[in-house]
Specification:
mainly alpha, globular, transcription corepressor activity, Zf-C3HC4_IRF-2BP1_2, 2 strands, zinc ion binding, Interferon regulatory factor 2-binding protein 2, nucleus, 107 residues, Arc Repressor Mutant, subunit A
Length: 107
């Protein structure tokens, strides 16, 4: 009988439905995040960051070197001991956000 396996599926459903209905919030400042406009750590699903916190973290870590997760942790990539780090293009995009926001507000 497969009856013993069935409770596993319903138990996992409340988590996914709660995640869908709860607002996304920045891990650092806890401000609400827009649906698509935030930084997601690829190693730790609960690490989500708004652009201002991500910018601040990049500036503190020094944008010219390796820049790791804004959580302050060196989150290892899945199946690896290598910590996830921003690519230079991602750093440039996040830091450039300061300028874009100012231009939008002026118009």
């Amino acid at each position: 009988s497969t009856g013993g396996l069935e409770p596993v599926h319903p138990a996992s459903l409340p988590d996914s439905s709660l995640a869908a209905s709860a607002p996304l919030c920045c891990t650092l400042c806890h401000e609400r995040l827009e649906d698509t406009h935030f930084v997601q750590c690829p190693s730790v699903p609960s690490h989500k960051f708004c652009f201002p916190c991500s910018r601040q973290s990049i500036k503190q870590q020094g944008a010219s070197g390796e820049v790791y997760c804004p959580s302050g942790e060196k989150c290892p990539l899945v199946g690896s001991n290598v910590p996830w780090a921003f690519m230079q293009g991602e750093i440039a995009t996040i830091l450039a956000g300061d300028v874009k926001v100012k231009k939008e507000r002026d118009s």
